[in-house]
Amino acid sequence: MWRDTWLIFKRGMVLSLRNPVWVVITMMQPILYLVLFGPLMEKITQTPGFPPGSSWQILTPALLVQLGLFGSAFVGFGLIAEYRAGVIERMRVTPASRVGLLLGRVLRDAVQLVVQAVLITVLAMLVFGLRAPFWGIVFSLAMVLLLGITMSASSYALALILKSEDAFAPLLNSVLLPVLLLSGIMIPITTGLAPSWLYWISRVNPFTHIVDAERAGFRGDFALNAITTGGVILLVLTVLSVWWGARTFQRESG
Amino acid sequence: MIHARGLRRSFRTRTGTVEAVRGVDLDVEPGELVGFLGPNGAGKTTTLRMLTTLLEPTDGTATVAGCDLRTDPVGVRRQIGYVAQSGGSSPECKVIEEMELQGRFYGLTSEQARARSAELTARMDLAGLDQRLIKTLSGGQRRRLDIALGLVHDPKLVFLDEPTAALDPQSRANLWTHIKAMHREHNTTVFLTTHYLDEADALCDRILVIDNGKIVAQGAPDELKAGLAGDLVTFSVPVTDGARAGEIAARLPEVSEADVDGGTVRFRAPRGDVLLPDLVRAIDAAAIPLTSMSVTRPTLDDVFLTLTGRSLRDAEMGAEAVGEATEDKETADVA
């Protein structure tokens, strides 16, 4: 299985490097937020009810989660194209491990995401003067890696079930937008800022806790409470999504 | 090489259950080149997908290349090559990358896979295209690459699903040559599906005719044709001798449907070509001058017509409504 995972990973990397335009394009969104939205945050973060930390410590980790959510959720489109070209089927008739066929792709996406996240963090530090403790950033990037695995495995599972871009795109949009708004990526949803009903809905959203843990990492708050909830939730999501993806790849038929 | 008993597959659709394959028995011996002929939607692809482990049968058993389909699908995958109708190479990859990857899936080392790739690309007239992106290949080249990918591990059994669909006539003839070479020179057992009669006729040692999810006939192309209506023999004599010539012809063995129209005599016989010398001698002995004669062999379309009561073309038209639903379901069902 690991051999096949490695073969697929390598193939994906070669393809990404051959056409790096897409890697750059998906990075444009968070960069635009940093440049065009970030400066607005400096005054707003003084508002009572905002979580502690500088505006860049609040925005940058949130943008990494956004990148993970959006960048990785759309990888399924590539799989639908491959499916249509018969590539998936060709590989499924070989003795290659079907879990490997999934994992190789997922790990490629996750590694690519972490590279993008590193570039954005470095940009925020150099251009906007983000200050964050080293180990906090490492922790946050590890979270980004898991988030990438989670989103990409789910995206592939969903793509293989739907097998149609026309069904996949609207589904993604209708799921991702509420998830994004409810996780307080732009403006944190705290008791001090949000009406209580909105606050409670956002607490039910697992991604809220992931954003909270990322922010805790960036401001160097390693209190157990701040990082465990998000970390554990993300770990559970990762296991579930990989299991779902593997099962979908393995099934002989629908 | 392939032994299947009672293979069935049904799909659930919104309007109910569609039985795509309803109990297929088939046997393919080592070294055969067998064609699976039938209209679109007859169940060819579904059967092929079951035999290649892509689709689990609803019912029935099969051993493929010595491995049980249900208990040892990985064993089956190791032994067989499969070239899908849609191909299977990634447009954004280079030829050599796909060939090497495919070889490595079968456990070859990098060096072995490259050596094997060089051998196969040369055999398939793809030499020198190693570094080309697959999207820049012509339709015929791409199809040959698909076949090369299926042969990377030197399988003893190869499945080809509609190998020449959507190819121009020249590439088609060229591909036939390659398929024949693969079969004869490399002693590969080939199982192919087609809905082209001429293709089945030109390529296959033996044909299985499938209609509506069941095998309705099998045999060598000539055997199938001979077993049915038989050849149509037509010959001409002077109008005055027509009736007498008709009587002579009707007395020959195994002649049926003899019919005289002025100086033209028509009849059917299982092997018209074998009968001709006798016919010529008998007419000659009666001192009747022959002006012309011809034998028309029945086509596989005649065969299909006799077996199912519809011509292949009509079957395709009729099957479209049902077949499309089935095929949609097929694509939707394969995860």
From TrEMBL, chain A:
One of its GO terms (molecular function) is ABC-type transporter activity. Keywords: Antibiotic resistance, Cell membrane, Membrane, Transmembrane, Transmembrane helix, Transport. GO terms for cellular component: ATP-binding cassette (ABC) transporter complex. It is a multi-pass membrane protein. Its main location: membrane. Residues 21-252 form the ABC transmembrane type-2 domain. It is found in: Cell membrane; Membrane. The chain crosses the membrane at residues 21-41, 61-85, 106-128, 134-162, 174-202, 222-246. The keyword Repeat does not apply. The keyword Transmembrane helix applies. GO terms for biological process: response to antibiotic. Belongs to the ABC-2 integral membrane protein family. This is Transport permease protein. It comes from Labedaea rhizosphaerae.
UniProtKB/TrEMBL annotation, chain B:
Keywords: Antibiotic resistance, ATP-binding, Nucleotide-binding, Transport. GO terms for biological process: response to antibiotic. GO terms for cellular component: plasma membrane. The keyword Membrane does not apply. It comes from the Bacteria. Its main location: membrane. InterPro entries: AAA+_ATPase, ABC_transporter-like_ATP-bd, ABC_transporter-like_CS, ABC_transporter_ATP-binding, DrrA1/2-like_C, P-loop_NTPase. Belongs to the ABC transporter superfamily. This is ABC-2 type transport system ATP-binding protein. It comes from Labedaea rhizosphaerae. The lineage of its organism: Bacteria, Bacillati, Actinomycetota, Actinomycetes, Pseudonocardiales.
